Amino acid sequence: MADEPAREADDAFSLYDLRVEVVAPPGAKLYCGAEVGDHFELRGEMLHLPPGQGISIYSLASVLPLLAAKQRPTHPNDWMTSDAEVACPDPNCPSRLRITRLGLRRFSHAETTAVPLPAAD
Description:
- This protein has helices spanning 4-9, 57-71, 79-82, 109-112, and strands at residues 12-23, 39-43, 46-48, 85-87, 96-108.
- It is an alpha+beta fold and 121 residues long.
- It has a five-stranded antiparallel β-sheet.
């Protein structure tokens, strides 16, 4: 197959690395054990926390469903492009998790899944 090397070289896709940071009004009491500025980064599929820092499983659960979508480039008019804060799931907590897109990272389809690309038409 003469096209296989070219196809393999062209199996790239890009995802944003994300930073998710705890934000809250000044002086707000947070009940989840977080502090303003606590954060983690999502690089590809790997979540990275600073050494010694934790995150509430409830806070994490509130933001997890959005992260894969925020990693993908979106249309400028799409709300997924502009909306970046997720409320704490505790209705008594004023904190939010702010999702910030960092740089784009390139990946190879073949290096991220065993499922082959569909055959070209």
